[in-house]
C-alpha cells in the first residue's frame, strides 16, 4: 500500500485509531530494519513529542509536522510492501502506546528524555551534538530540549 493512502486513511479514522496508524507508519518508515529496541525508541520519541504539545496534539500531527519524521520526508508514492515488517511495526506501536499510557514512573523507557533522533547514513542535523541518550543500531537518540508534558 502507498504512504499517501495510509495517511489519507488516518484522516478519516477515529483519533485513537489514526494515531496508532500514524505511529505504526513512522516506525515502519524510520526503523523497520532496526532492532526491536530501536523501533521502540522511535515510537517513544514520537509519543514524548505528542505529550509536549510542541509539534501537535496528536501522534498524527507530530509525525506529519514539517520535516520531522519520515511520513513528510519520503515520497507519498512510497510503498509499504514488506508485510512482515508492517505487522511488526503495528505490534511495536500498539505496545508503545500501552506502555506510554502508564503513569510516567511506571513506563519502561528505552531512551529517557530523548526528543530527537537521526539516522547516521541519512542526516547530519545541526542539533546532532546535543546530549546523546543512546545509540541504537544506526540511529542516535538525543535530548535536544527538555520536553515536559503540557498541563491539562
UniProtKB/TrEMBL annotation:
Residues 34-141 form the Cell wall hydrolase SleB domain. GO terms for molecular function: hydrolase activity. Keywords: Hydrolase. It holds the Pfam family Hydrolase_2. The keyword Hydrolase applies. This is Cell wall hydrolase. It comes from Lysobacter korlensis.
Amino acid at each position: 500500500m502507498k504512504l499517501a493512502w495510509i495517511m489519507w486513511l488516518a484522516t478519516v479514522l477515529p483519533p485513537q485509531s489514526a494515531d496508532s496508524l500514524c505511529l505504526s507508519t513512522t516506525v515502519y518508515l524510520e526503523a523497520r530494519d532496526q532492532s526491536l529496541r530501536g523501533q521502540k525508541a522511535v515510537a517513544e520519541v514520537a509519543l514524548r513529542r505528542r505529550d509536549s504539545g510542541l509539534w501537535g496534539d496528536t501522534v498524527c500531527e507530530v509525525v506529519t509536522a514539517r520535516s520531522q519524521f519520515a511520513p513528510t520526508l519520503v515520497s507519498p508514492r512510497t510503498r509499504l510492501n514488506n508485510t512482515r515488517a508492517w505487522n511488526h511495526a503495528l505490534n511495536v506501536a500498539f505496545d508503545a502506546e500501552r506502555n506510554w499510557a502508564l503513569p510516567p514512573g511506571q513506563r519502561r523507557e528505552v531512551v529517557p528524555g530523548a526528543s530527537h533522533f537521526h539516522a547516521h547514513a541519512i542526516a547530519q542535523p545541526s542539533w546532532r551534538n546535543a546530549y546523546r541518550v543512546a545509540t541504537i543500531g544506526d540511529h542516535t537518540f538525543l535530548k535536544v530540549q527538555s520536553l515536559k508534558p503540557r498541563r491539562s
